[in-house]
Amino acid sequence: MLLIDEEKWKVVIDCDSSYDGQFFYGVKTTGIFCRPSCKSKSPKRDHVVFFDRAEQAHAAGFRPCKRCRPDLLEFEPKRETVEKIKKVIDKFYTDPKQLKEEIVGLGISRNSLIRLFQDQLGMTPVQYINKLRIEKAKELLANSQDTILSIALQCGFGSLSTFYNLFRRLVDMSPTQYGKLFAKKENEK
Predict the structure, then answer these.
(1) Are residues 45 and 93 in the same domain?
(2) pTM for this predicted structure
(3) How far apart are CA 144 and CA 156, in angstroms?
(4) Stretch 10-39: mean pLDDT, rounded?
(5) Which N-terminal residues, if any, form the signal peptide (predicted)?
(6) Which of 72, 105, 147, 177 could join 173 via S-S bond, C-beta 3.0 to 4.6 A?
(7) In the Cβ-directed half-sphere of 138, how many Cα atoms lie within 13 Å?
């Protein structure tokens, strides 16, 4: 569907993401081109030119916006941010103090972090961390001779009672029962 320039202008003012990839706009005064959904400050109408493809904007001497990244086929900053957070959690989930420092170092507010995780993964960061810790605990209970206290500490739990409560809630049995279940299976072999 071809749009006339005034229709494109309305799309730009509305930051309508449904038109991303259908056209791009360049701002003559800055030399930058953007996607229609770019959240940057709206330029003056007489400073704007429209392009059907990003290559045309490049050829006309415009450079891509660093905010909306029109030079990328796909740009999903929320997903990229969540992946960055997940990498930090995956690396430091067994060390609560280090994990907190690394998360703070990402420069994302606590509320934004929770909202992003909930939107992208359907769970909170704490739920994700607990899932990782319990999976690690299950692996250790099945494959090591360590005490339950040692396993709880290795998995990043600060107390044995927290570990027991969460394990029972997520696995539907106590860590002791889980360990015995695997010991029984080993003896049957």
Answers:
(1) no
(2) 0.60
(3) 17
(4) 91
(5) none
(6) 177
(7) 13
